[in-house]
Amino acid sequence: MTDVHYNEQSFLEQLMICTEYVDKAERYELLGPLYRLIIPIYERKKDYQALLACYQHLTKAYAKVIEVTNSGKRLLGRFYRVAFFGKAHFGEDEEGVEFIYKEPKLTSLSEISEKLQMYYEQKFGAGSVKMIMDSAPVNRDELDGKLAYIQVTWVRAAPEGRAAASASGEGAFERAHNVRRFVFETPFTRDGAPRGPVHHQRLRLTHLTAEYWFPYVKRRIPVIETQVEEKSPIEVAVAEMESQVTELSEIVNAKATDLKKLQLRLQGSVCVQVNAGPLAYANAFLDPTLAQMYPDELVDKLKSTFKEFLTVCHSALQLNAKLISSDQVSYHEALEANYYKLSDALAGVLGQPLQDILVNGSLTTTVTGVELDSSNA
Fold first, then answer.
1. Residues 302, 286: contact at Cβ < 8 Å?
2. SS3 for 360?
3. d(Cα 344, Cα 353) in Å, to the nearest integer?
4. d(Cα 344, Cα 267) in Å, to the nearest integer?
């Protein structure tokens, strides 16, 4: 920089300001790399007071990382896909263009929709803006040329070049930092209805790539690439069961167990409704009379996922038994009873009894002095 006096001290001052902003943004993981640039300068200057402050800040930052990781209460924002339609109102830089918006904390779909509608009605006039609240593809021929249309869809970040977050050990920070790929799901059936029986239920995955990475200096970034993937009903079942296994495994393997979250997830997992949940998938795709209609590799994958599901539910029940108080014994017994019913119903289509599926061969837990054993089921 030729016209500004810029030296090492100026650089250091800017880095220190950066540490303050990173802390305020709750992106504590970035402080380590920042201080690796700062600390060598202070060491060379033998500024021990400054070094003490650096290491104290780092100590607090890493403590916060542990705290928010265990609590899950850090809110790094939400992402939304926003598309604009209506040549009469939007210019070339917006009409027909999709953007990814980054909104703070727990901004809901209704909040961002209301905010956008108010902004553009002030710009174009009251009653001139119509919101499209579903994620289905928009047929422009069906739109009123006099109106401005805005479609808003919640999207989740999908960090590129990485495995699934649960498999690679990523957390909330990695899923919200340095991301430019996003995905949203649209359920549909062949007859045009968004939802139907599990053997008709399909899923459209829309993958979006933004021009730049978030966080960015702007709150919205245009989408430069869109890819659409469709899942068949059995693929939807596999993905849903894998998701349930992953979510329950994360809760079971957490260093600090959230009992309420464990029980809510466990209660939903061992549901024994015939027309919904795991049992509906099993009856639709694994029944010997129906399984031959689907690819063998997908049937085998679904069977394998169900075995993992029963195993992780077993682990969750054991963990729940250790953590509950005496006034929840009957609640736990109800969960166990549902688990037995579900495992009995699944044993036929899986071709294996529960004892063979479970890694340790039996389900024996002790709840406040009461022993529960699968052999009694």
1. yes
2. coil
3. 8
4. 17
At 99, give phi and psi (nearest 5°): -125, 150
Contacts of 118 (CB under 8 A, 6+ apart): none
d(CA 165, CA 157): 11
- For residue 330, the SS3 value is helix
CA dihedral 245, 251, 253, 258 (to 10 degrees): -160
Q: What is residue 138's DSSP assignment?
A: P
Token code pair at residue 115: 């905010």
pLDDT, tens digit (0-9, with 9 covering 90-100), for 88-109: 888 877 888 999 999 998 899 9
By the 8 A CB rule, do 297 and 339 touch?
no
Q: Provide the angle, in degrees to the nearest 10, between the axes of the packed helices 296-323 and 329-350.
A: 160
Q: What DSSP letter does each residue of 140-162 carry, written as one string?
A: GGGS-TTSEEEEEEEEEE--TTS
pLDDT for 108-164, tens place per residue?
999 999 999 999 999 999 999 999 988 888 888 888 888 999 999 999 998 765 434
Domains of the chain: 8-71 (no CATH), 78-231 (no CATH), 235-361 (1.20.58.740)
> What does the alpha-carbon distance between residue 197 and residue 189 come to, in Å, rounded to a whole number?
9
State the pairing for strand pair 148-157/129-132.
parallel
Whether this prediction's pTM lies above 0.70 is answered by: yes
Q: What φ, ψ does residue 80 adopt, rounded to 5°?
A: -135, 145
- d(CA 49, CA 54) in angstroms, rounded, equals 9
